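so my prof wants the structure for this chain in the tokens format not the other one, which i didnt know existed until like an hour ago. anyway here's the sequence
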Amino acid sequence: MLITRPRGTEDILPENISGWYLLEATARELSYLYGYREIRTPIFEHTEIFNRGVGDTTDIVEKEMYTFKDRGGRELTLRPEGTASVVRAFLEHRMDAQGLPVKLFYLGPMFRYGRPQAGRLRQFHQFGVEAFGSMDPGLDAEVIALAMNFYRALGLEDLELHLNSVGCPECRAKYREELKGYLEPYLKELCNTCQGRFERNPLRIFDCKSSVCQEIVAKAPTVVLSLCEDCSDHFKRVQGYLETLGIDFILDEHLVRGLDYYTKTAFEIMVKGIGAQSSIGGGGRYDGLVENLGGKSVPGIGFGLGLERVLLTLQAQGKDLPQINKIEVMVVTVGADLNKEAVRLLANLRAAGFKADKDYLERSLKAQMKYANRCKARIALILGEEEFKRGKVLVRDLETGSQEEVPLEEVVDFCRQKKESGW
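here's what i got, hopefully its the right format
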């Protein structure tokens, strides 16, 4: 019986890898421009990091984590998101000693047990940034601008930035009681999960996918109305900075994000036409998370952008992705006696920076040329016995069909000149 990949995972095949290279290169280039440095954390962490960091009332912790015990009996979890791991690394390595702010970015796989659907896999990949050490609303705007510019650099269109403030612990405590007062008459109508959230964290009810729960909270009072003076001022200044940067936004008072660590700024980026789940990324401020994981009070803000969602959106919008792994030059032999010469020529081509290959199945000339076309090679260098005796190679342009003989010792330079002139 054929063994297939686990449900909710995908193989990234060679013909699709170019899109991933583009996303990763764009993320790195932009992050460096904004002063962020790359960090790579373990794929699994102690489970406590996510229980304390993400929040035990979130869907992630309640339903979606891949948790297991190792042979030493330690409880570990495949990381379901990136921020908690980066905060742990920030604390463990005392990165604040380098001076604040500390600005980091990451690329890598995350794991959540959910119902697989287009762009929503159980193993998925994120580009994320985290900035520690500043309460300045200008930094909030910078993080949002970086996310928006990442999408724009890829050519995405119809982006919508949804913006909200979820307040600080003080004003959110006041709002929590106000929200509970509104929800109490509807308590029996809420789904079982949201009935449990009512006491523990009623804000999570805004994230529920149940149409009944959504209808109930649609008319609920929003946290913006309960913001303290400091949070209200911070939110207004974030909006002012975004206006200065020319970034349009939609005030979305029901936006709370799905993680418990968010404070003040919360944002989500959406795009139309990619199915029921229109969000392609988001983030926000988490001023209490570092302290919650055992550190000093250090504010932070960041985002996590799902790369599968980005690729799906690029495809839906008809954007062409570059093919960067195509063979440029194929070495073709007529007769087994020239294989050593073919290997030598192939090595010289690669040393000169060409993406080059040859046939290793001793196929006929016709079959080798079909292989060259299938690899989308631009030039075929044909080593034939008669040409080789004269010290020549037959160079065929596979796009135009033209061909000419070139001295063997000059063929690499000839190919270089052809490439520099656009083939």
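also thought this was worth mentioning. The two ends are 48 Å apart (CA to CA).
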